[in-house]
Amino acid sequence: MAKTSRFSAVLKAVAWIGPLAVQAVRSISKNPELLDTIKEQATWLSGLRGGTGDDQLETIQVLRDQVAYLADSADDDDEARKAKEWSQRLDRCERAAQILKAPGASKADRTALTKKVNALRSEIFSAFITEQAEDAEKGAVAERDPGA
């Protein structure tokens, strides 16, 4: 695959992120080995729009995998603290998603949860890209299955 078409594929896969697409391209241009990992994660997350409780729960699981990676590769106390906070926020979102799957849940509540999960998705994915780039520079990128 040509270098230009690979970057084009990544940009399409992370289009939902908007401003983070630039960060992804910069990271990949500095560390081309990140392309597959970032592309897989972005494709997986972009396919989960969060419209249903099941979509939200799947998104939360993918984000948990990314947070686990961030926690494992935290270089300092601040990164470890952020990973812990994201994990706690994901716990709250997961509990809310389980409740909102029940009949009678309001559309407003589902919409509010979707916005929270989407905001977390952007924050966590941004940190994931950054950490992958840092780890690649150190030669310590771990392969992760986005669906695990």
Report on this structure.
It comes from Brachybacterium phenoliresistens. This is Chemotaxis protein. There is one protein chain. It is built from six helices and no strands. The longest helix has 32 residues, at 107-138. It has helices at 3-13, 20-30, 35-46, 53-72, 77-100, 107-138. The protein is an all-alpha fold. The protein starts with a helix and ends in a 10-residue tail after the last helix. The protein has one domain (3-138).
The sequence of SSEs as H and E is HHHHHH
Percent range for β-strand residues: under 5%
- The parts where pLDDT drops under 50 for at least 5 residues are 141-148
Q: Calculate the terminal CA-CA distance, rounded to whole Å.
A: 27 Å
Class derived from helix and strand content: mainly alpha
Strand tally is 0
- Quickly count the helices: 6
Gyration radius (Cα, Å) is 16 Å
Largest sheet: none
Helix content: over 70%
Task: Average the pLDDT over all residues and give the rounded result.
Answer: 77
How many domains, as an integer? Answer: 1
Question: Looking at the structure, what is the overall shape?
Answer: elongated
Task: Provide tags for this entry.
148 residues; 6 helices
What is the strand and helix layout of this fold?
Elements: H1 3-13, H2 20-30, H3 35-46, H4 53-72, H5 77-100, H6 107-138
Helix pairs in contact: 1-3, 2-6, 3-6, 4-5, 4-6, 5-6
